[in-house]
Specification:
Blueprint (H helix, E strand, L loop, with lengths): L8 H22 L5 H25 L7 H17 L5 H4 L3 E2 L5 E2 L6 H17 L5 H20 L5 H14 L3 H8 L9 H5 L6
Length: 203
């Protein structure tokens, strides 16, 4: 919005304030002096700041608008929806997560890590001009997905450990991903998301 309408001070002030609130949330997450109860109080204070920032637009219950004004309205509504559902600052109170490979990390407040994981594959497609067909794109998506998922599972991510793991799948008939689902008592998915995004070409 600020790029589309750089002269609009309301959009710029909104973006600046929202960034300040996010940075305060990240600071609270890193503050080891805070107890669990202290983190909950911090989140409540952050929620109040979101309400103060978004309240005037949200309470106005504006009808659909045009251009950046509607983007602004929708953003405010989404921020308020997440705040009221207590989902906006869950990363502040969430415990660190242990990955299957043994690494433990704090829950991120953004999806930047996932985007960085996918960026190299996306850049390779652009520079190499590969995957010109649906079949090629599907094959590449499967390979990249499996390798990046294995990176999170294997304590040491090398060619030899990947080959050893795939051989183990072949011998046991069960992948490490299936083992994780079983450990978490989760049912296997009904269908692959890939089948919706890149259906298997017919013929």
């Amino acid at each position: 919005m600020t790029l589309l309408e750089p002269a609009n001070t309301e959009y710029r002030d909104f973006a600046d304030r929202l960034l300040e609130i996010y940075r305060a949330a990240c600071k609270a997450q890193r503050d080891r002096r805070l107890s669990d109860a202290g983190r909950v109080r911090k989140v409540a204070a952050l929620d109040d700041e979101i309400l103060e920032l978004c309240g005037s637009v949200w309470f106005a219950e504006l009808p659909p608008l045009k251009g950046p004004a509607d983007d602004y309205r929708l953003l405010v509504n989404e921020l308020m929806r997440l705040m009221l559902a207590e989902q906006l600052f869950t990363f502040v109170t969430a415990a660190a997560v242990a990955a299957p490979n043994g690494n433990t990390a704090a829950v991120s407040g953004t999806n930047n890590e996932a985007e960085r994981t996918l960026r190299s594959a996306a850049e390779a497609r652009k520079t190499g001009r590969t995957s010109k067909t649906a079949r090629g794109a599907r094959r590449r998506a499967v390979i990249v997905s499996v390798l990046e998922s294995l990176r999170q599972h294997l304590a040491t991510f090398t060619l030899s450990t990947v080959i050893d793991e795939i051989r183990r799948w072949s011998d046991t008939g069960q992948s490490c991903f299936t083992k994780l689902l079983n450990k978490l008592n989760l049912p296997p998915p009904d269908a692959s998301l890939l089948d919706y995004l890149l259906p298997e070409p017919s013929g």
